[in-house]
């Protein structure tokens, strides 16, 4: 397991007219599908190569059309507007004739943003790394259907990991430390995956099972500092068969580097 | 001022191949542009007519490309996927050759969602309607550059309206009661506008001026009950020249009917 794994997994090869090919790995399978965050990072990797001088995803909105499968895929990109400091782009991930994900995005250069920080949000209050529950403790049968868990080191805050032992808190909150295997340092494209890497926050409500994403929007607000990330997922509006999942990603320098919200269907369970 | 005004303002006429024409009114002008929420509702009105049996916007993500002006516009729609209970659609608002807004959306039928409500979020704590500060108190010069203020009755919670008298709280919170003029009862398409109708929440941080939206995603979670809406805007991550604005819309039956987040550039001041 080396640093190279992640870059291989999200690799894209340009073909023609803004189109790229990708090979979706079975290493990011979870249950019946391929993790939506990994797919979004693969699309983000393609988008990073489209607008000159604008390699970073700043806002990315993905609508999930059908479940992806491991294997070849294409990412077709279009430039909707490129002017000033940001570009607005579109992308479609397909496998054969099947549309999997459609995306709108604003890309720019995070290094060129002003350096003001007036953030009032506070980092998640969670137990130190060494007191958290590593994902490697998951039962063998869970790890078998979720090979994505071999891709990263995820340490769950015990204060909101009761669901793992049949005692969900009912608060709708999940928090974890996160780092790709091989201790690869995070970057903006990786953050697109991190926002969808934890189990559905509905686990903490005792609603287990897959929660298919309808829509996921990620805002990448700064380049993450090297080291561990802290990730929180929260839901406050479970109704009508759906829930929102709000994610924050904090870096080792206590900067809120990404915020996301997704709308998902909750497990019928 | 009658109920008919709003419906006239967002009216769209189908032409061919999923395209609609609209006439953007100068009644929704604010400062140098046309209110982004009104524009989104106009697009939402077109989208409501595209997928049979799926008239309601459930998730709508808009990327703002250039500032719209009052006058004729076209809304070109495409069906990306229509199957099961929801359809995924795309839309582009243009004026002449100028792309103004590009949108992805999931539409469905809110009446057909399951009736579970396990929402843990609480309605905003705000002063009763009669103790709030009506937008009609705004100075004449403000109302002159913001004719949109004539379109609705907006009553600001005095606890977070200090910005109006030069005393912003610094908390990054704004709350108001909202109702269209003519006491038109709210509906899902109107909610797309309501999520962007209040002044930028950065006013409460003492940062005045226009805050151009890069991206706005609205989740409409239920049909609103008749009567007044309560709207809250909050920001927690002002950094890098940008801020997120989280909006909640609660109806008269204490249901959280819409949640939105936008990423905007903050005023240079």
Description:
Two copies of one chain form a homodimer. The first copy, chain A, has 269 residues and is mainly beta. The mean pLDDT of chain A is 95. Chain A has one domain (4-109, 125-265): Acyl-CoA thioesterase, double hotdog domain (Porin, Beta Barrel). In chain A, a hairpin with a 2-residue loop joins strand 14 (238-239) and strand 15. The first copy, chain A, is 12% helix and 39% strand. The first copy, chain A, is globular. The two termini of chain A are 35 Å apart.
Q: Which short descriptors sum up this protein?
A:
homodimer, 269 residues, mainly beta, Porin, 16 strands, globular
So how many helices of chain A?
Answer: 4
Q: What would you give as the CATH superfamily of chain A?
A: Acyl-CoA thioesterase, double hotdog domain
Task: Write the element-wise H/E pattern of chain A from the N-terminal end onward.
Answer: HEEEEHEEEEEHEEHEEEEE
Residues in β-strands, percent of chain A: 35-45%
Question: What spatial form of chain A do the alpha-carbon principal axes imply?
Answer: globular
Oligomer: homodimer
Number of strands of chain A: 16
Using the CA coordinates, give the radius of gyration of chain A.
18 Å
Biggest interface found = A-B, 50 and 50 residues
Q: What is the arithmetic mean of pLDDT of chain A?
A: 95
Please outline the major beta sheet of chain A: 14 strands, antiparallel
- The N- and C-terminal alpha carbons of chain A lie at a distance of 35 Å
CATH C-level label of chain A:
Mainly Beta
CATH topology (level 3) name of chain A: Porin
- How much helical structure, as a percent, in the residues of chain A? 10-25%
Low-confidence stretches of chain A: none
How many domains, in number, for the residues of chain A? 1
Structural class of chain A: mainly beta
> So, CATH architecture of chain A?
Beta Barrel
């Amino acid at each position: 397991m080396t640093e190279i794994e992640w870059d291989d997994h999200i690799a894209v090869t340009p073909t023609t007219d803004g189109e790229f090919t990708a090979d979706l790995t079975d290493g990011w399978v979870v249950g019946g599908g391929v993790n939506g965050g990994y797919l979004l990072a693969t699309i983000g990797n393609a988008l990073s190569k489209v607008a000159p001088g604008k390699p970073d995803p700043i806002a990315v909105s993905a609508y999930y059309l059908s479940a992806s499968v491991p294997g070849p895929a294409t990412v077709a990109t279009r430039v909707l507007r490129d002017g000033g400091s940001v570009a607005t782009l579109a992308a479609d991930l397909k496998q054969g004739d099947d549309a999997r994900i459609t995306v709108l995005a604003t890309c720019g250069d995070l290094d060129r943003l002003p350096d003001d920080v007036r953030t009032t949000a506070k980092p998640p209050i969670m137990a130190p790394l060494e007191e958290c529950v590593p994902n490697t403790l998951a039962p063998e049968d869970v790890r078998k259907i979720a090979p994505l868990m071999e891709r990263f080191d995820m340490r769950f805050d015990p204060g909101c990991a009761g669901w793992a032992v049949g005692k969900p808190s009912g608060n709708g909150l999940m928090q974890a430390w996160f780092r790709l295997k091989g201790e690869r340092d995070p970057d903006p494209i990786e953050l697109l995956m991190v926002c969808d890497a934890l189990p559905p926050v509905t686990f903490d409500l005792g609603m287990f099972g897959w929660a298919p994403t309808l829509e996921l929007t990620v805002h990448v607000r700064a380049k993450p500092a090297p080291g561990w990330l802290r990730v929180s997922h929260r839901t406050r509006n479970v109704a009508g068969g759906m829930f929102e999942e709000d994610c924050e990603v904090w870096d080792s320098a206590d900067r809120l580097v990404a915020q996301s919200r997704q709308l998902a269907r909750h497990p019928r369970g």
